[in-house]
Amino acid sequence: DQQVKQNSPSLSVQEGRISILNCDYTNSMFDYFLWYKKYPAEGPTFLISISSIKDKNEDGRFTVFLNKSAKHLSLHIVPSQPGDSAVYFCAAAPQINDMRFGAGTRLTVKP
Amino acid sequence: DAGVIQSPRHEVTEMGQEVTLRCKPISGHNSLFWYRQTMMRGLELLIYFNNNVPIDDSGMPEDRFSAKMPNASFSTLKIQPSEPRDSAVYFCASRSGQGATQYFGPGTRLLVL
């Protein structure tokens, strides 16, 4: 039962352009949402988070948007850089309990 | 400060053998999680512990899998007997009681022949 879905397995963008990664969830009890980034042969690392009381959180080039009514969140990276090339996982948690991850989206940023 | 430590980093074994994966969480973190990553299913939560007590093991695939956390600084995930379909990368993560962010180890890449 995939409670968190990332429907795009891969995304390719040109350096300097915007990258938009999408995530949908089904459980209305999820209250806290996170994005993790994973490079090959490494564990996922925390990137940015948002709680359900907000609809936007920004950290430098990274912005996460949350649409609770649509059960949808997205990660925007602007401008995209080649070093952003990685697998991005969306995760959701009911408060601080266990987190459910999506299957990941592989982002490739071309120079 | 050391992050989450996992060992071994790579494991190759034959079908039917017992496999034990090890994890040392970040000191002071009171929650520990085991995940499995596959191409088909992405990151799946297998089990998690709070204060060394297993809270949710509904993600454990079957009885061949077991996990223990004998103390706050060590956990094991055991597969007995192993099967080729268990081949995956297994991650351990830990979290403090103050937030939802989990910190992942580098993973153990398991190949069962």
Explain this structure:
- The complex is a heterodimer of chains A (111) and B (113).
- Chain A has 111 residues and is mainly beta.
- Helices cover 0% and strands 54% of the residues of chain A.
- Chain A is built from no helices and eleven strands.
- Chain A has strands spanning 4-5, 10-14, 19-25, 32-38, 45-51, 56-59, 62-67, 72-77, 86-93, 100-101, 105-110.
- Chain B is mostly beta strands and 113 residues long.
- Chain B is 0% helix and 55% strand.
- Chain B is built from no helices and eleven strands.
- Chain B has strands at 5-7, 10-13, 19-24, 31-38, 42-50, 53-56, 65-71, 74-79, 88-95, 103-104, 108-112.
- In chain B, the strands form two sheets. In chain B, strands 2, 4, 5, 6, 9, 10 and 11 form a seven-stranded mixed beta sheet that branches. A four-stranded antiparallel beta sheet of chain B has the order 1-3-8-7, with no helix packed on it.
- In chain B, β9 (88-95) and β10 (103-104) form a beta hairpin.
- The model of chain B has no long low-confidence stretch (mean pLDDT 93).
- At the A-B interface, β4, β5 and β10 of A face β5, β9 and β10 of B.
